[in-house]
Design brief:
With about 220 residues, the protein is α+β, with helices and mostly antiparallel strands. The protein has helices at about 20-30, 55-70, 100-110, 115-120, 135-155, 160-170, 175-185, 195-200, 205-220, and strands at about 1-10, 35-40, 50, 75-85, 125-130.
Length: about 220
């Protein structure tokens, strides 16, 4: 069956213990996303592993991981793989398939000498990501370029712009008053006036959302081999 596998690891994980951080991340992911094929689990060392049935769902997790990484100022590697997995009972850990192998390869490529200028640039940041969806390098490179175009625009946002975008993305049906209150609280009450709409506009929220959805729709429409 087609699936998306996400594998995350801590940058320089040997420098300390990250058990509490990982537990916090898993709590963030499982609190809001209920449609995992395999729920996030901690595996060897500081690696976190999860499987979902589409990029539409997986992207929600990528956004959560990015938000948590920025909020806690923790550098991470994220390997994304798309492919087939064996048919398993929902929640089972013992699963194999190309989605798992591709995610592992994507993660490994981040930790070794980058083979492309694109990966070199991604590895200069604190949120380091890679994606493999095929045995054809040109397809992988295309999708990674698109992903980089989206995430790099997100990382250019100010903290308040990113928080405003996350609030709108994760809670799309709330009132502006609710968003403004949440943004004010996340800013620690340090700003005399927090204009939610202004920060959302300056974050290019509509443009980035359109880019995200167009890529996700195309990604999920491709035949998975």
């Amino acid at each position: 069956m087609p699936a998306i596998c996400l594998k995350l690891d801590i940058v320089d994980s040997r420098s300390g213990s990250y058990h509490e951080w990982i537990e916090g991340l898993i709590d963030q992911l499982t609190r809001y996303e209920l449609s995992f094929l395999i729920e996030p689990i901690r595996r060897a060392g500081d690696e976190v592993f999860m499987v979902l049935d589409s990029m539409d769902r997986a992207w929600h997790c990528v956004r959560r991981i990015l938000a948590y990484s920025l909020e806690t100022d923790q550098a991470v590697y994220l390997g994304i793989g798309r492919g087939q997995i064996e048919h398993v009972e929902r929640g089972s850990e013992g699963v194999e398939g190309s989605a798992i192998y591709y995610a592992s390869d994507a993660l490994l490529a981040l930790k070794t000498q980058p083979e492309t200028e694109l990966l070199s640039e991604i590895n200069r940041g604190s949120f380091r990501y890679n994606l493999i969806v095929s045995d054809r390098a040109i397809i992988n490179h295309y999708h990674l370029l698109t992903l980089h175009a989206i995430i790099s625009r997100m990382l250019e946002r100010t903290a308040l712009q990113q928080q405003a975008s996350d609030l709108k993305y994760f809670y799309p049906d709330r009132t502006n008053a609710w968003y403004a209150d949440k943004l004010f609280r996340s800013a620690g009450g340090k700003h005399a006036e927090v204009n939610f709409s202004k920060h959302l506009h300056r974050a290019d929220y509509k443009l980035l959302t359109e880019m995200e959805q167009a890529w996700i729709d195309y990604f999920d429409s491709e035949v998975v081999r």
